[in-house]
Amino acid sequence: MSVSKKEKIKTFCYQCVAGPDLMEVEVENGVATRIESLYGIQDAHPGGGRVCVKAFGLVQKTYNPDRLKGPLKRTNPKKGKDEDPGFVEISWDEALDTIAEKIKSIQSEGLVDKSGYPKIAASFGGGGTPTQYMGTFPALLSALGKVDLGFGAGQGKKAGHLVPFLRSANTDINMTLAMAIIAMVMVHFWGFSILGFPSHIGKFINFKEGPIGFFVGILEIISELAKVVSFTFRLFGNIFAGEVLLMAMGFLLPLIGIIPFLGLELFVGVIQAFIFSMLTLVFASMASVSHGSGDDHH
After folding, report:
1. Does the pTM of the predicted model rise above 0.85?
2. What is the spatial distance between Cα 22 and Cα 8, in angstroms, rounded to a whole number?
3. Most buried in the list 64, 155, 168, 273, measured by CB within 10 Å?
4. If phi over 0 gives left and psi between -120 and 50 gives alpha, with beta otherwise, what is residue 176?
5. Longest dimension (CA), the chain
6. How far apart are alpha carbons 148 and 129 in whole angstroms?
7. pLDDT digits over 74-128, tens only?
8. Between helices 173-195 and 210-252, what is the axis angle to 10°?
């Protein structure tokens, strides 16, 4: 009859960002059978030597017959909540070769798509996953360049994401930039129409009044470019900030609690539309007035 060999090994649990938790594992014939707290260090441990309850599940997790011990490969190309991915276990060599081939293919085509988003994504189980557990993986991600990183767990939810039913077009900076460019193009069109080409262009390219006049023309050009930037970011910043506020309030005060903020953002939208239109009219009025010294109007 063989004699059972028992021993206790001091180690730690690092399953979450709250760790590491010091603990003692009872091992019988090479198999972990029990997790214990280290009450002997209670005077030096902020938790009195007690280990988190999550650590007590390590024995079941380690010897669970359904525990994944190798990489899985998806066999069903169709994706969706109702689709079975058809995962099958493969070797580490096959998994690494598959990933390497895909990365090389993406690198040859370009790391970002037409919208400027990275084609390669890396996801981690939690935001506090220590880099020392990742080996050379962070160095690989850094060497690749642009990579979309995702942190946090998503247990209990598959293939789901939030899609706003209605979203303000002005939360896209491309939209506000286009509006700013169109507005300023029309402002100068009105300036050319009223003053004529020589008089209007003379505000920006002026050699008749010497170096000072030329320098003032350069400042006018910078001023016109600044108007485009100001138009773009004023509208984008206000509307985007409102969308962020609504998103936050939607989580904190869903349904009824968000109604006052919807009214607030509607009011902000009306005010921003008024400001944008009034500034366009002011700039158009300024563009219709010549800066020439011989003019009687200013």
Report:
1. no
2. 13
3. 168
4. alpha
5. 117
6. 17
7. 999 898 888 999 999 999 999 999 999 999 999 999 888 888 888 988 876 655 5
8. 150
